[in-house]
Amino acid sequence: MKEKKAPKKSWIYYYVVTFVIVILLNTLVFPFISQREIKEVGYNTFLEDLEKGKISEVAMGDNQIVYLIKDNKGDEKLYKTGIWPDDDLVNRLKDAGVKFSAEIPKQASPMLSFFMTWIFPILVFFILGQLLSRTLMKKMGGGGNAMTFGKANAKIYVEAQTGKTFKDVAGQDEAKEALTEIVDFLHNPQKYSEIGAKLPKGALLVGPPGTGKTLLARAVAGEAQVPFFSISGSEFVEMFVGMGAAKVRDLFKQANEKAPCIVFIDEIDTIGKKRDNGGISGGNDEREQTLNQLLTEMDGFDGKKGVVILAATNRPDSLDKALLRPGRFDRRIPVELPDLKGREDILKVHAKGVKISDNVDFNTIARATSGASGAELENIINEGALRAVRMGREIVLQEDLEESVEVVIAGYQRKGAVISQKEKEIIAYHEIGHALVAASQTDSAPVHKITIIPRTSGALGYTMQVEEGEHVLMSKDEAFNKIVTFTGGRAAEELVFGSVTSGASNDIEQATKIARAMISRYGMSEHFDMVALETVTNQYLGGDTSLACSNETATKIDEEVIAMVKSAHEKAINILKDNMGKLHELSTYLLEKETITGEEFMNILNS
């Protein structure tokens, strides 16, 4: 059995211990030493102190007198003087009530007194400083002493430790194909050098979070069976100017010693951002120096040695152009969100270590998770396994995975939520409004599930639509029909209850977003035609947009967006007016069941 290691003590622990030691020395040892320090005075001073009653004890030797004086605070001090012929001294001492004897206290060594008063405390604090500096250096990536302060704390993995190959990466066939050549070069460099080809110095993996960029880099190292250096871009950025550049130098030095190898820099945008030409220098000096050193090192090392730099980022638009030019990062490899087949393959890869029923249809789960990343798909498998355990089963069923999809999309069910019957009725009509409008239109995804059970994400209910296949393009009619579907819930509330609620807030947001994109980015407006009026500033992190037009044009865009959403809303109302009987029938059924499948919905609709 492996023994548990004692947890490392915090640096504050050493401060506390040292403080206690100093207090004890000051209380017990230092006063003892100070008491034994004897000051020499004249005999007349001794007589004056005796007459004034200051002396409490006297010790007389052959050639000196030592006496003790206690002040008002209780502090004791020793004094000594020489023997003077005085026959009446004993009587004076008796009259003054002074205790006297022939035992003279031993005087402390001046060297010992100096050591205990000055040298020992300094020594204690020096040792403490060494302990704290070593701890601090280790935390800042400098190793055990100040000489290694600029070392790069890159985590080194070899093939046995990564344990990843291309078989563990699914849904990224194009990225794997681009990286296979690098693996082949590391295995057979002669084949390429004979024809004069050079190994790409660097490859930049770009894509949304969770798509498997780090996994791909580790798989390349596992396939090539070479050492794998992994470091995050944030680890280069230090508090002290020049430390990041020193870490870059040390990292490439280690890589050259281990060549052939792969160096992976995650989140390279931390140090690779565009340099500011007109900005005020200061806080960015360290980052820019680190970037400059990285550019220099990538130019300096010999590609024939087999050192390959892989880097990952989800913000390629923010990277410095000097970093992206050929000769540094020669290749830009997109690692996009997986398509339908890719999602199905990823689900199967992550399901290998889970006990799953043979009847599970991964294609159905893949179709319900359009736009999901590899990390989210892995989470869906795990949530399904957790649900199976909660339900007391030893195997994961289809229903577990379908519920886990809803958990990832909308959160857990709020079983304890208290909703009045009136509000449940409004929610039921709202969701059936969405479903009925969707089912009544062409170019609209089929309804898969409708529920009015509230979720932890804040949704009081939702209508899930699942595409039958994978679509990479969206027509103008499909986009407009999506807006109509989003307005169907509010339209149902207006027709049945004659009022509106706040339940359509997310629908309004989504409908407006699609309408604005159609007009300003997709060229689906007759007035603006094929003019780009809006740009996406970050396609991988939220897709934030910014207008690229005048204020007058922006006003016209707003007017067209309002007109388009209003037109969609009117279409939804007309669809529901034509199907009022089914609206009431389906809403009553949903209110009773709380959750119905798309198949049940279509059976009632077509009956």
From TrEMBL:
PROSITE patterns in UniProt: AAA
Gene Ontology molecular functions: ATP binding; ATP hydrolysis activity; ATP-dependent peptidase activity; metalloendopeptidase activity; zinc ion binding
Binding, ATP: G207, P208, P209, G210, T211, G212, K213, T214
Domain AAA+ ATPase positions: 199-339
Single GO cellular component term: plasma membrane
Cofactor: Zn(2+)
Cofactor-binding details, from the entry: Binds 1 zinc ion per subunit.
InterPro entries registered for this protein in UniProt: AAA+_ATPase, AAA_lid_3, ATPase_AAA_core, ATPase_AAA_CS, FtsH, P-loop_NTPase, Pept_M41_FtsH_extracell, Peptidase_M41
Top-rank lineage group of the source organism: Bacteria
Keyword Phosphoprotein: no
Binding of Zn(2+), residues: H430, H434, D507
Cellular compartment(s): Cell membrane; Membrane
Top-level EC class: hydrolase
GO BP annotations, alphabetical order: protein catabolic process; proteolysis
Active site: E431
Membrane topology qualifier: Multi-pass membrane protein
Keywords: ATP-binding, Cell membrane, Hydrolase, Membrane, Metal-binding, Metalloprotease, Nucleotide-binding, Protease, Transmembrane, Transmembrane helix, Zinc
Residues passing through the membrane, by range: 12-33, 111-132
Main location: membrane
EC number: 3.4.24.-
Function: Acts as a processive, ATP-dependent zinc metallopeptidase for both cytoplasmic and membrane proteins. Plays a role in the quality control of integral membrane proteins.
Protein family: In the C-terminal section; belongs to the peptidase M41 family.
Subunit structure: Homohexamer.
HAMAP family to which the protein is assigned, alphabetical: FtsH
Listed name of the protein: ATP-dependent zinc metalloprotease FtsH
